[in-house]
Design brief:
Length: 117
């Protein structure tokens, strides 16, 4: 009997490590995939960057004089749902290897494991 198991991980890197371990050590795994919010990668890059603010300082008759203020970006500028890198893993496998897969997922940091037992 073919079954589908789902689990959640905090980061995509943890999910990739768990899936590669499953594919190498458990027989009867037909396919594996995972899904996460790709915008969180962009948010992660933005949080390591620098913010530049242009401040008008004085107005003359011909042009504006401005100053540039740079500061390190913080995670506060990115809304909370976009910072989450929670990853959902999908595994299609043989029904006889369900217990082994669930124990490996738990050992590798998986949570909310949904499998037909």
């Amino acid at each position: 009997m073919v079954t589908r198991i789902t689990a959640e991980f905090e980061y995509p890197e943890l999910a990739e490590a768990a899936l590669s371990r499953l594919r190498s050590s458990v027989k009867g795994v037909y396919s594996t995939s995972f899904v996460y919010d790709r915008i969180s990668d962009k948010a992660e890059r933005l949080s390591r960057g620098t913010m530049y603010s242009i401040l008008p300082t004085a107005v003359t008759t011909h042009n504006y004089l401005t100053a540039v203020l740079d500061s390190p970006a913080s995670k506060d500028i990115i809304p909370e749902p976009r910072r989450s890198r929670k990853t959902t893993v999908f595994i299609v496998c043989d029904g006889s290897s369900t217990h082994n897969i669930c124990s490996i997922l738990t050992a590798m940091g998986g949570s909310n494991i949904d499998s037909p037992q």
